[in-house]
Amino acid sequence: MTSLKSAAQELRGAAAALAESRGLQPDALPCRSDALLLLAAAALKAVEADAAGAANVVAAAREARRLLRPHLPRPQQPEAETAAAAAGRKRARATAEDAEDADLGQYSHAHAFDGDARRRAKFARLMGGGKGEESHHNTFAADASTVKRINGELEEQFNTALSHHGKKGLGA
């Protein structure tokens, strides 16, 4: 049997450790609800760790702690960090605009991206074209005239193959 007082002291220590692990000062929480949330999370974690508990109680405590996790307090970010994060987002948008200049290698003359800068930027990012490296490929993607010529030759070969009725074997 344990006393309520000893369980409360143990819970207080666990909540303080949880606050410190989240980067908070346990003695200087901004509001009472933050302290209560930390205590609840620590209590649920203690129930999970209790080996003598029933499996369904442990599972319920685990699920409750998982649902409570997004509501736990986090340390306040200084304005300088949030401004830097906003600048990072602006930088990411700027790189999407710079993808127009990205080296697409053999695909730079393909007409798949005509008029769609966003698709071109995504393709450049996925293929590594935005890293400033030159393409090392010696093959080339076909442009519209080459595709038309290849399709014509393929259709001609198909029609020739259809005209060979009943000829079998090599060299027929």
Automatic annotation (TrEMBL):
Top-level taxon of the source organism: Eukaryota
InterPro entries listed in its UniProt record: SMAP, SMAP_dom
Domain Small acidic protein-like, chain residue ranges per copy: 110-171
Ranges for region Disordered: 68-101
Recorded family membership: Belongs to the SMAP family.
Name the UniProt record assigns to this protein: Small acidic protein
Organism from which the protein derives: Trypanosoma conorhini
Taxonomic path: Eukaryota, Discoba, Euglenozoa, Kinetoplastea, Metakinetoplastina
